[in-house]
Amino acid sequence: MYYSILFPDREYDYEFHSNIQPEYFKDLCLDQIMDACMKGEDFDLIPLFCTALKEPDEIRYRQEILTDMQNPELHQRIKKFSSYMRRLDRGMSAVKKDFYSNDSFNNNYLTQGTLLNYAEQYCHAASSLWP
Question: Per the structure, how many domains does the chain have?
Fold first, then answer.
């Protein structure tokens, strides 16, 4: 499961949704906006935006989040956090492979120490969100 700030108090199941954009995206040119926003992104965020919101409270919540993102200071903090997350995600790929390996050469204290180092970096990145 994955948690997103785009959904209030709800888990987001990536496997449940697809990247297929609703038909009205083309009519409203939202497909072009999404493509421009996601250009160069490592994370696949399109399913988050393609998920239909049915409850008025969810829609208001989403609008409030997007309004908050217009704050330049907050926007910069989120960009910095995202940059940290990209770097950690790249490094974690190798650690995950080694950590779950049955080979004792790959799954060792060095791998576990690297995992702990990434956990510390995540905590540092998360704490950078608040002044």
Answer: 2
